[in-house]
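Batch job 17 of 40 flagged for manual review because the log was empty.
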Amino acid sequence: MPNILVVEDDTDIRDLIVLQLRQDGHQVRTASSGPEALAAIERQPPDVVILDWGLPYLSGPQVCRRVRAMPEAGRVKVLMLTVQVTDTDMVEGMASGADVFMTKPFDIHELRERVGSLALQSGGAGRGPVAGDSGMP
């Protein structure tokens, strides 16, 4: 079962994504800030990170750059979500190491398909649950 980390500070968006991905059979963990996301990735690198651009304390691109520098996170795929829509913003997001860039509002079905594809690319055939993780957002 693929392990997905959803990093989003908007609880409504985070809860919607978590619900949909769990229905698809993914193991889902959450974080609501950049530092919280980095700590979760260091504990157990996920197969896919859904990363919001506008996070508190560290932006999505800053988090992505740090993830790409972690040797233990070499196979992690990053899908960046943002309301940023300029070409410059998209280039910055991709330059930070994001594999996929989607703008908000997004189509939940497209997001689910992209996450599934990224999980396969990362080799996420099945990492088990994290010790001590209740599985709740």
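Reviewer: the log was empty due to a logging misconfiguration, but the result itself is present. The helical segments are 11-23, 34-43, 60-68, 87-95, 108-122. Unflagging and moving on to job 18.
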